[in-house]
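Hey, I was hoping to borrow your eyes for a little while. I've been staring at a protein lately and its backbone has me curious. You're getting the sequence in one-letter code plus the fold written as tokens. Would you mind checking whether the tokens look sensible for this chain? Here's the protein in full, and shout if anything looks odd to you:
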Amino acid sequence: MALSRQCLCRPLQYTFFFSSSSSTTLPRRLGRVWHRSLSHATTHSVSKAPSPPGQGWVMGSKNMLKSTSFAIPLAPSSHGRLFHTHRLLFSAHSSKPISRVLPFSLKTNGFSSMPHADAPSSVQWEGLAKNCLDPAVSEILKKKLENLGMDTDICIPGQYNHLLCPICKGGDSEEKSLSIFVTEDGGSALWMCFRAKCGWKGSTTAFADSRSSFGLKKITKLKNIREITMENLQLEPLCDELVGYLAERSITEGTLQRNGVMQKRYGDQIAIAFTYWRNKMLVGCKYRDVNKKFWQEADTEKIFYGLDDIQGKSEIIIVEGEMDKLAMEEAGFFNCVSVPDGAPPSVSSKELPPEEKDTKYQYLWNCKEYLQQASRIILATDGDLPGQALAEELARRLGRERCWRVKWPKKNEVDHFKDANEVLMNLGADVLKEVIENAELYPIRGLFNFRNYFDEIDAYYHRTHGYEFGIPTGWRSLNELYNVVPGELTIVTGVPNSGKSEWIDALLCNLNESTGWKFALCSMENKVRDHARKLLEKHIKKPFFNASYGGSAERMTVEDLENGKQWLSDTFYLIRCEDDSLPNIKWVLDLARAAVLRHGVRGLVIDPYNEIDHQRSANQTETEYVSQMLTKIKRFAQHHSCHVWFVAHPRQLHQWVGGPPSMYDISGSAHFINKCDNGIVIHRNRDPEAGPLDRVQVCVRKVRNKVAGTVGDAFLSYNRVTGEFMDLGLPSGNEKK
């Protein structure tokens, strides 16, 4: 197959000549060569003439000779896709579809495409970039594209080229789904893969990073809307073969006639034609072959398929394809439309563009007077990821508050049916009707129904998740009042030197022993070595040193120490600020989040409040700041199912008489007790006449969750040698868990 040099220089109309011996093999070979885009081709005219004998090659010429010729312009869609027509169509003389390539013209609206097999070499790249200011610039761009995996030897500057995507490799079919445009000066390029499961895109210039943006989006050329009729499109009623094919997909002849489904011939080949109507006027036409390849008329208004069926309707259904629209009608739903352009690969992360620039979804704005009347819109898009992305993009524009979504039934234990036509074919019209009638409210972020949590409520009732009543503290007298529930916030306070931090450390040791929990410690008042000593003494139940505080107790051995160090390493993760600045609460929570995700931490200790940076804006009071800070901590705890203990000191007590302070005495704000789930005061007896000096009073002053405890006081005994807390009357090491 040869291609004239003239065709390489500018878009010309191609004439294809096929001999009788090559009419089958050459199109099949071309079908493997030409890029099979996910977008759609457009047909303008069809003429037929006998093939010259002995001709099995292709020539570019301005003068159309007698041949089997098709003039089909390649038109960019709203997403910049190129439309072309190498499609597998229906043979009018065969009961089975045959593989053919539709010859076509490269005359376009300023765009053109070259076949892979006859693309220019690197020499032609250099020769065609005639407008390049510096040949070295073009060479730099060429090397950058090659480094990304693109075959630049088949790229022509100034034209759209179709390559094998280096990311997805064209999928199983190895289709050339990557569309790349190189500017005529050879200095910049823009590309996008149109496979829905890939969607890789980017742009670059010769002297820019490949991820930098480049203003090639302005290439899109405005097009004039053309008027079409059934006659000038040469549409025909469906032949028996196509009616039979559609019947196999459970679409009846009456539904086809009502929706104006036609056919169009290309020589001895036939394609299904879906006609688009507005107010009974034909405004567009889309074509499909048996292999589910689509193309459509260029320069026509983009509207919904079946638009007239939703006029004046308060409830409408939107599907992803024409076949799904027909399937809905078989289930009794006539108030259904289909989008014309399929689904995007993913949800856009950008803000919604203004109406006039929302080109991909222009059909919504062209039909907005129909949609404004609808108070309930059921989004029955495909169940795959692109279909879900389409539903989200539609909901963003239509308003989530009036949208419902469909959940397709299961095909097996793993997969679901993909769309309406699949459900109709496999399960029948009644099941499809039931699926639509059971559509769910489209989720709105932050707005829920108890139905969304029924599974969680059931698990809570049957206690299948564990810890529904909280985890016992390890002290019999305290378990009736306070238990540790994942996802809650406990505020701990007490006058200085009451043992707040010591009690929390002892609690963590008990929880680790009973459940294996791990913890993140943000303890700014403790040196690391001192904190390690305190934890080891509680865990090993021996003093760290031979010192006066240990009395006659046996010191922990080196072996004890080594085992204890391993326990420390396995159980605790330290959050510490190593520079001179004070950490703020966001910094602490960010590191705690990393500890949860990386190490499986289930508890966080922040000790104390006054060692954190609390800078706030000039117009924010301390009360407002504390409220926002505690809200952030609670959200962290709930989101990560992590219990948080937050130590806060009371303000200076001028008339203190030795009793435990109130939670309302905490310095800063009453929000400490208002917002916490649990409020605990740790108080140590300092009066020998009032009782033993080693007695510690644990005052539970607030328990939000009555399942986990109640308000009251518990008394523990503190062992100064090992730092353990024990129920009164029990010797060290025998406390009830």
Q: What stands out?
A: The mean pLDDT is 80.
